[in-house]
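To: structure desk
From: M.T.
Subject: fold request, one chain
Message: Could you run this one when you get a chance? Sequence is below, nothing fancy, just the single chain.
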Amino acid sequence: MIKWILLLCFPLFVVAQNDTAFAKAETLFKKEQYQQAKPFFKTYLSTHPTHAKTIEYLGDIEGYAENWNEAISYYEQLVEQSPKNANYHYKYGGVMGMKALAVNKLRAATMIGDIKKSFETAASLDPKHIEARWALIEFYIQLPSIIGGSEDKAMKYADQLANISPVDGYLAHGYIAEYNDRPNDAEVNYRKAVQVGGSVTCYQKLQEHYEKNNKPEDALATVQAAQSKHKEDNRLHYQFGKIAGQYGIGLDQGISCLHKYIDNYTAKDGVPKDWAYLRLAQIYKHKGDKIKAQQWIGKALASRSDFKEALLERKEIQLL
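Reply: Done. Structure tokens follow.
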């Protein structure tokens, strides 16, 4: 009798185990512990082979790991299961695009049609899919005209973005203008993006535009404006210090900003601390303080001995 009861309960036990595996995997994934989450998702998938969310998570994990073939396989399954889901087409096109960048040019050329089809399908299925339109802008602006590149087509999707999200529209038009060497048009659009959106990203695009066009004072003023609006964003401290180190302006404030960046650094800030050490070395080089410049460049190289930019900077500091 007991054996019979155990046999009846066994399927329930397996279901509970699998549900636990999915919950555990999802928790790890949200903590960005992707490789730890992967075996739990695979366990769940073994008994739920068409579970869309699990397949998507596994595709995302392989994408983060730059395992393009595996990611393609997962997203392809999703597209086949749900051909009307715009996001699945977008992700499928995205990993194919990343694979195309990693293979030889001849192989990449054979993938162009599938990549374009995936992004265009995503855009047509969802009239408000911002990421798919950005992908199409990048696709048409980067691709040589001989194999399908077209500024006009890129502009078409930038115009669509403007109707969905004015900020994205200005950023897209600015990007297209910048890529096609129309710096004045790019500046106008980036400034409008700052006025309408005012996010750190908007300020950063305008700042980068000024740096590319050798206008460091305007770049520094843009960072200062961003700091006044986004006081708690640590990334802006690094940006100020970077400009100070590269161009030799705002040196004392640059030192202060870089120390704040180092003191408040988290992985989400993006730029590793050894870059902040390098910028401090550059600032002290501009100030003619060889001892402090050597101290900071030494700290950068202690963090990463093969830091190429720091190795080059050390040679310049030694000439002081």
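Reply (cont.): The mean pLDDT is 91. Let me know if you need anything else for the meeting.
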